[in-house]
Automatic annotation (TrEMBL):
Annotated protein name in UniProt: HAD family phosphatase
Pfam assignment, any one: Hydrolase
Origin superkingdom: Bacteria
InterPro entries: HAD-like_sf (IPR036412), HAD-SF_hydro_IA (IPR006439), HAD_sf (IPR023214), PGP-like_dom2 (IPR023198)
NCBIfam families xrefs: HAD-SF-IA-v3
Organism: Streptomyces purpurascens
């Protein structure tokens, strides 16, 4: 996608400048939402339990404490939350060490944000140990700031991660564009007062006020993101 990109801070209407872009990680930039479910299924199989496919929509996009806690309760597995968290993180790390596919358009979008010096943050419910492994593939230089799910008092769907990212970049949340793939992440971004671009990965997301839904990151460039600040005020 070729763009004619306005300079950072250019306004087409009062208060419409794009100040920062905040991106989710799993399912948004890297094609890993399926990895988490596969690892969860394998771990619980080793404990003698089979996960119901319908639970996938319950656990997608949420913090590990919520997802793991739900699965322990749903299966009755004899394991503590702390023990399960270690097993899930270990299994996920093994998966991403073997393969870490980017979502279509992710590499191009990150390169464009970096080229035009748009303040950019990675905001994930995944733990720091996972984010740091993924950054080796995404390129840590693409992000001025990263926020992990185990570094905030309340992670998604609460607004805390996106508020922390905006504050860390010195940006007004209302002038931040957030790119998310799950309803949980969308709820967090909207609660923080951000404009949202939803790229659904597992479950459908409907358009709403200050929320635009696209089918792929290939539809998103800086002209598109600047336009949101005008159209969705």
């Amino acid at each position: 996608m070729t763009s004619t990109v306005p300079a950072l801070g250019t306004r087409t209407a009062e208060g419409s400048a794009l100040q920062a872009v905040l991106l989710d990680m799993d399912g948004t930039l890297v094609d890993t939402e399926g990895f988490w479910w596969d690892v969860e299924a394998e771990v619980f199989a080793s404990l003698g339990h089979t996960l119901d496919e319908s639970w996938r929509h319950v656990v997608v996009g949420g913090p590990m404490t919520r997802s793991a806690g739900f699965l322990i309760e749903a299966t009755g597995a004899d394991i503590t939350l702390d023990e399960l968290t270690v097993l899930l993180n270990d299994g996920f790390e093994d998966r991403i060490d073997r393969a870490l596919p980017l979502m279509p358009g992710a590499g191009r979008l990150l390169a464009e944000l970096y080229e035009y010096e748009i303040p950019t943050a990675l905001v994930s419910a995944s733990h720091r140990r996972i984010i740091d492994r993924v950054l080796t593939s995404l390129g840590a230089h693409h992000f001025r700031l990263t926020v992990a799910g185990d570094e905030v008092p309340r992670t998604k769907p609460h607004p805390d991660p996106y508020l922390a990212a905006a504050a860390g970049l010195g940006a007004d949340p209302a002038r931040c564009a957030v790119i998310e793939d799950t309803a949980t992440g969308v709820a967090a971004a909207e609660a923080a007062g951000c404009h949202v671009v939803a790229v659904p990965s597992v479950a459908p997301i409907t358009p709403a006020l200050r929320r635009t839904v696209v089918t792929s990151l290939e539809e998103v460039d800086l002209t598109f993101l600047h336009g949101l600040m005008t159209e969705m005020r």
